[in-house]
Amino acid sequence: MKLYGYWRSTSSYRLRIALSLKGLVPETVPVHLVRDGGEHRGDAYRRINPQRRVPSLRLDDGRVLIQSPAIIEYLEELYPDPPLLPPDPVDRARVRAVAAIIGCDIHPLHNVGPLDHLRRDLGHGEAEVVAWITRWISEGFEAIEALIDGDGYCFGTAPGLADIYLVPQVYAARRFAVPLDPFPRIGRAVALAEAHPAFQAAHPSRQPDAA
Ligand SMILES: N[C@@H](CCC(=O)N[C@@H](CS)C(=O)NCC(=O)O)C(=O)O
Predict the structure, then answer these.
(1) Residue 26 gets which letter from DSSP?
(2) Which of 14, 119, 176, 198 could be joined to 20 by an S-S link, Cβ 3.0–4.6 Å?
């Protein structure tokens, strides 16, 4: 397998964690999101992923999967052990809700494209952009703080889908200096996950394209 990604992209980071938890080590193909206006915007990468975003996963038979939620579901179906979701349907829905808050409601608002639009097209300065990011991450984290268990991983005694989404989102929050003191349960869950070898192997600083 080949993983097309960028070291500090949160979607790439979450997919790396899922792969790592499943014991899978794909070849890494870095796609630079910033250099020369973004390698992902060029024709070569468009032929791999028509949406021109990372991550993408090329399977051994040449087929390419895109969108981290879809790829993680694929991995869960093909490699069910260790499971990323609990057995009970209500518990599964709760875990997926935390993943959706991050994947659907927080991350898209501080993605490269929208932030470029705020800066370049709408003329906002860096302080305003950071205030925007802080607002949406904090609002999402308020909900997650209330939803997770609060005494270990997000849910239960093993890392799962919610942790896979939360750790990269906290990495992004730290990058933009979003205050995390109001979220002690999130802090505990992330500290525990960050000590896990699979999460450590997936960390942005451990990737070949890390700057
Ligand atoms: N929902 C997608 C989001 C993918 C995504 O937006 N990736 C970002 C990096 S984290 C990207 O490629 N951004 C490029 C851009 O916005 O131009 C997923 O989870 O795979």
Answers:
(1) P
(2) 198
